[in-house]
Specification:
Length: 367
């Protein structure tokens, strides 16, 4: 009896180290650490291979916890915000957003953050995937030419935002210093044909929308939360024309969509599409048949869609001014044969003005 009691206490204490075990309601298996799932890291440390957006690292097939080393570099770079418009971006690894990091629940993630010698500002990183004060911010403050590192255990699966948190954080974020980290559930996410990584963010420039030249940050607009630009992946046109996302009819695509903000909530929508499956807050809760997903600044969503008809589909923040007047517009080009059973044009013709006798009905209806 004593032994059983001791075992029960030991198990309870062991479990207490894992946040999921403190909640009574059922969680989908593998989305939160348990002692069985998230023991000590195994094998050799893995160096994460990072890719620029909208590319996504491949799904993780490993089924044990490991140490994953993530090398990031803060870089201040002058780049294109729109055709003819330049901006002095703050970035992780030179892109807005920074590369998507992909780990597995239970992994020990080692973040090594360098600050480029050519930079002028101190930077750091706060990852929302971290259970720990500041999300790593205080442990990663780096002046130009320095590197800092810290480690955390990824206790909860989900899609999380990371961002620079150096004061004034709103300025660092408004300059583009954010990205996303996916913590995969233990058995991975359902398989899809293609995955895309898209992040929304705002830019506050002195000049009006599309005013050419190098545009400095407008602090008044930032404090008033009135952006000049609302864009996907750091600039107007990052996902249109030659940069449009591509897929085939019959494929299921997945968007890892996060919002860097710093201020606006996105109403993420695909014009002419319904999301079959979404994890609306980027966590374990799953929903279906959703038209538009609310994604707050510092929040994420995972959204899957099976593509059933061909065409060029618009990816937008459905707050309409942002899509047509501020840049929040992307394209997904779906190739394949027309599917008239699912979607077709019937007619477009003049009809007689009111007061004239209607043409006889072509057929009667009894319902
Ligand atoms: Cu920064």
């Amino acid at each position: 009896m004593k032994r059983i009691l001791a075992t029960a206490i030991a198990l309870a204490l062991g479990a207490a180290g894992f946040a999921g075990s403190t909640h009574a309601s059922p969680l989908p298996a593998g989305w939160t650490c348990t002692p069985a799932l998230c023991g000590a890291p195994q094998g050799k440390p893995i160096v994460e291979h990072l890719l620029p957006p909208p590319e996504v690292p491949p799904p993780i097939t490993r089924r044990y916890p490991a140490t994953v080393i993530v090398n990031l570099e803060a870089k201040e770079v002058v780049g294109k915000l729109a055709d003819g418009v330049k901006y002095d971006f703050y970035t992780f690894d030179g892109t807005v957003p920074g590369p998507m990091i992909r780990v597995r629940v239970g992994d020990t993630v080692e973040i090594r953050l360098k600050n480029a010698h050519s930079d002028h500002m101190p930077h750091n990183i706060d990852l929302h995937a971290v259970m720990g004060v500041g999300g790593g911010a205080a442990n990663s403050i780096v002046i130009p030419g320095h590197e800092a590192a810290f480690a955390f255990k990824a206790l909860h699966a989900g899609l999380y935002v990371y961002h620079c948190a150096m004061a004034p954080a709103a300025v660092h974020i408004a300059n583009g210093m954010y990205g996303a980290i996916l913590v995969e559930p233990a058995d991975g996410l359902p398989k899809v044909d293609k995955e895309f990584y898209v992040m929304q963010g705002e830019f506050y420039t002195k000049g009006a929308y599309m005013q050419p030249g190098l545009q400095p940050l407008d602090m008044t607009k930032l404090l008033d939360e009135q952006p000049t630009y609302v864009v996907f992946n750091g600039r107007v046109g990052s996902l249109t024309g030659e940069h449009a996302l591509r897929a085939k009819e019959g494929q299921t695509v997945r968007f890892f969509f996060s919002n860097g903000g710093p201020n606006l909530t996105s109403s993420f929508h695909m014009i002419g599409g319904i999301w079959n499956t979404v994890w609306p807050w980027g966590g374990s809760n799953e929903d279906h048949n959703v038209q538009t997903i609310s994604v707050p600044p510092g929040g994420s969503t995972i959204a899957d869609m099976k593509l059933v008809v061909p065409g060029t589909f618009m990816l937008v923040d459905h707050a309409a001014v942002r899509m047509f007047n501020k840049g929040a517009l992307g394209q997904l080009v779906v190739s394949g044969p027309e599917q008239p059973d699912l979607y077709r044009r019937l007619w477009n013709k003049p009809f007689p003005p009111s007061g004239t006798s209607p043409a006889p009905a072509a057929a009667s209806s009894t319902h």
